[in-house]
């Protein structure tokens, strides 16, 4: 049982169809559009790894979808669903995602076809390091070439194995740390990367909910407070998104995992559910909540906002009609098939598309990459300077007004920015700015019927111009 991804071939076709639908609203000629759409380079490797007493042949991929800007950028996933079509689709989404949030990278994606639960930590380390050396051999990794990151089934630990393997194979490269992002802070990571995708999802949905005209159409009020939310997938992205929604006053009514779902109209606490999950091995039987042993049923429960935050194609032609949410925020990549997209749009549901909504991860990866290349922590140069400036400003205000600010007020005003403050505010600004760009296209370009098409148009416009200005090698 579980919510399964049934159609990888159609996932890639779905991405291509969405591209074609949007391309008709742009001014680029057929050749430029064909080049934007094409997957430039595909690496498939098979390599042996000693697992226990036997040798296992591992299948893995890295796809560089676009080279219009370098490096290529995108995560590496560990999953049994990995195949060439899936990685191609995901790499293509990365190209469009980066363009939408003005991150100057081409799209890439990697995948290793394994069920990570079946391996020990040491075996996973061997697989990850061997994969990295395969990427090195083929020139598919490097700070200016292709920069992986975490994705489904991977995290900071895997990234630290990658940076260590790459650095030991490239000992003279002073920028070696920039070969991968999503690293632990001690290995050159940036503060705020772990929660970045989930926080970006929150910022994006909050921005969408701030437009009165759009909310009235859905018979909702503006703002996040009081909205009923269901989150599917309690991995890094889903967990952090749920947490930020909860902190903003939303009511988390449903949570869905691969082996079951729970629902409580009075609201769930995500940290307590996590603790229950750790103690019992699953989210089912959480006190006061209704259980669904088939997780797919969890998607169909009443709510205002549904956040699919796991794998692709979980909402398809057979269940789309039963979705009760008024807004779907695509935290995962490709959670809706194109058939589901049509059904949901016809129902008047507002779908906030993946290529915009989950771009918080790659946005903060960009900040991490910049940090690695500049070899300095954000805020290191300006923090004390700003504190001193604010101090002087308060002194001047006090002496001209003859009034004193309290010690607490002084302390609050005086705080110069730390790395985490800068990363979070850079992410917030990006998510707000990009939503407005997409919404503008949606509202103002004749014939555009949904936000996804608007987001693709936004991406194609930027990449098309880049290709035009780049010129094509004769
Ligand atoms: N895997 C994430 C994504 O799909 C992050 C990619 C990155 O940070 O490069 O967007």
UniProtKB/TrEMBL annotation:
Keywords: NAD, Nucleotide-binding, Oxidoreductase. One of its GO terms (molecular function) is glutamate dehydrogenase (NAD+) activity. It holds the Pfam family ELFV_dehydrog_N. It comes from the Bacteria. Substrate binds at residues 73, 97, 365. Residues 190-471 form the Glutamate/phenylalanine/leucine/valine/L-tryptophan dehydrogenase C-terminal domain. The active site is at 109 (proton donor). NAD(+) binds at residues 197, 236. InterPro entries: Aminoacid_DH-like_N_sf, Glu/Leu/Phe/Val/Trp_DH, Glu/Leu/Phe/Val/Trp_DH_C, Glu/Leu/Phe/Val/Trp_DH_dimer, Glu_DH, NAD(P)-bd_dom_sf, NAD_bind_Glu_DH. The record marks 151 as: Important for catalysis. One of its GO terms (biological process) is L-glutamate catabolic process. Belongs to the Glu/Leu/Phe/Val dehydrogenases family. This is Glutamate dehydrogenase. It comes from Sphingobacterium phlebotomi. The lineage of its organism: Bacteria, Pseudomonadati, Bacteroidota, Sphingobacteriia, Sphingobacteriales.
């Amino acid at each position: 049982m579980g919510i399964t991804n049934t159609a990888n071939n159609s996932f890639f076709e779905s991405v291509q169809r969405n591209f074609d639908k949007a391309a008709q609203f742009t001014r680029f000629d057929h050749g430029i559009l064909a080049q934007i759409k094409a997957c430039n380079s595909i690496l498939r490797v098979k390599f042996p790894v000693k697992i226990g007493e036997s040798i296992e042949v591992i299948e893995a991929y890295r796809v560089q979808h676009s080279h219009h800007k370098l490096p290529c950028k995108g995560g590496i996933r560990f999953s049994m669903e990995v195949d060439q079509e899936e990685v191609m689709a995901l790499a293509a989404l990365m190209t469009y995602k980066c363009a939408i949030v003005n991150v100057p990278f081409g799209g890439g994606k990697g995948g290793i076809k394994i069920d990570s639960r079946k391996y020990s930590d040491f075996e996973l380390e061997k697989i990850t390091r061997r994969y990295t050396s395969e990427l090195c051999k083929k020139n598919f990794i490097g700070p200016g070439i292709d920069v992986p990151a975490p994705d489904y089934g991977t995290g900071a630990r895997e990234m630290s194995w990658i940076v260590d393997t790459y650095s030991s194979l490239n000992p003279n490269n002073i920028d070696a740390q920039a070969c991968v992002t999503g690293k632990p802070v001690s290995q050159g990571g940036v503060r705020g990367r772990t929660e970045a995708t989930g926080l970006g999802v929150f910022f994006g949905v909050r921005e969408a909910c701030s437009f009165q005209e759009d909310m009235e159409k859905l018979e909702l009020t503006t703002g996040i407070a009081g909205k009923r939310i269901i989150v599917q997938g309690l991995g890094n992205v889903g967990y952090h998104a749920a947490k930020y929604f909860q902190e903003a006053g939303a009511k988390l009514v449903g949570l869905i995992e691969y082996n079951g779902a729970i629902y409580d109209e009075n609201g769930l606490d995500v940290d307590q559910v996590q603790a229950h999950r750790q103690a019992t091995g699953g989210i089912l039987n959480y006190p006061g909540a209704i259980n669904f042993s088939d997780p797919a049923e969890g998607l169909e429960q009443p709510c205002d906002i549904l956040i699919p935050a796991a794998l692709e194609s979980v909402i398809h032609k057979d269940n789309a009609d039963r979705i009760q949410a008024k807004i779907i925020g695509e935290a995962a990549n490709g959670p809706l098939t194109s058939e589901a997209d049509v059904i949901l749009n016809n129902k008047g549901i507002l779908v906030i598309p993946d290529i915009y909504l989950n771009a918080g991860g790659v946005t903060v990866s960009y900040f991490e990459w910049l940090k690695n290349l500049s070899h300095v922590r954000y805020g290191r140069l300006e923090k004390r300077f700003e504190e001193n400036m604010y101090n002087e400003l308060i002194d001047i205000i006090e002496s001209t007004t003859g009034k004193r600010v309290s010690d607490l007020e002084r302390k609050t005003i005086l705080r110069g920015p730390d790395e985490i403050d800068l990363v979070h505010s850079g992410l917030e600004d990006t998510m707000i700015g990009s939503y407005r760009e997409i919404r503008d296209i949606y509202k103002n370009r004749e014939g555009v019927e949904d936000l996804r098409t608007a987001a693709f148009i936004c991406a194609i416009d930027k990449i098309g111009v880049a290709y035009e200005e780049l010129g094509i090698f004769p």
